[in-house]
Amino acid sequence: MITPNPASQPRQFLEYLYNAAVMRALPLHNTAAYLPAPPKGRTLVLGAGKAAGAMAQAVEAFWPQDAPLDGLVVTRYHHIPPRPPGLKQRIEVVEAAHPVPDAAGLAAAQRMLALTQGLTKDDLVLCLISGGGSALEGFWKSAVAIPQTGKPSITFEWYRSFLQMLIDNHAASWFGWLIAFGELAVGIGILVGALVSIAAFFGATMNMSYMLAGSASTNPILFALTIGLILAWRVAGYYGVDRFLLPRLGVPWTRRGVVVVAPGGAPGAG
């Protein structure tokens, strides 16, 4: 297709860019380069997300026809894409509620867990995960909503304005990844004992953010525990990776020797 001239055909040029971007994002056009070689044993495909059905079809299209392939993916209701003519279905696609899970989603997760039983070192598991933060945006919108009767979820107006700013700027697509990697980093830091006080501080910050949004759950307990870890900085370094990491990085409470030079005298340690 010839690229339209942006000067003489601006509308056609924008449509061309839009169609090219959508085409590039379709799994059938970008999955093949990321698929590994078939294993000696079977290949099990598990997945979830609104694009899980389309990604499953892409794997079916590019996976060798003589190689074993089966699996199960779950997508949102009414999001199973039309099957291309001639493409044999080898991966089951089921529907469930999104973003709030329902019984169908729970049943699909239990089935996925059962499918992993009996796998060996010669088998391969492909995980197809899609998501753009729609669940997080739904949580934000629920938190900022002011009911006609009753008390709103958010007490402080400045925090409601902050979440509304994130909603207006469609920040959920990247903020969801920030939360996921942040929680992972905090969890690993506390589990292995690496920079425990710093990890606990950011963990407490996330707990406080959820509580400011009106979500109590286990956040008050986790917040109290993380504050305890922060206050326990005196014993940091006795257990875990910090025992080896902190001496290399240096800590502000470590006492260091100071060289004092008296006037006309020799240097002495202070």
Structure description:
The strands form two sheets. This protein has a four-stranded parallel beta sheet with strand order 3-2-1-4, with helices on both faces. A two-stranded antiparallel sheet has the order 5-6. The protein has helices at residues 10-25, 27-30, 52-62, 103-115, 134-144, 157-168, 172-192, 196-212, 219-231, 242-249, and strands at 43-48, 70-76, 91-96, 124-129, 259-261, 267-269. The model has no long low-confidence stretch (mean pLDDT 85). The protein is globular. The chain has two domains: 31-131, Rossmann fold (3-Layer(aba) Sandwich), CATH 3.40.50; 135-249, no CATH class. It is an alpha/beta fold and 270 residues long. The chain is built from ten helices and six strands; from the N terminus they run H-H-E-H-E-E-H-E-H-H-H-H-H-H-E-E.
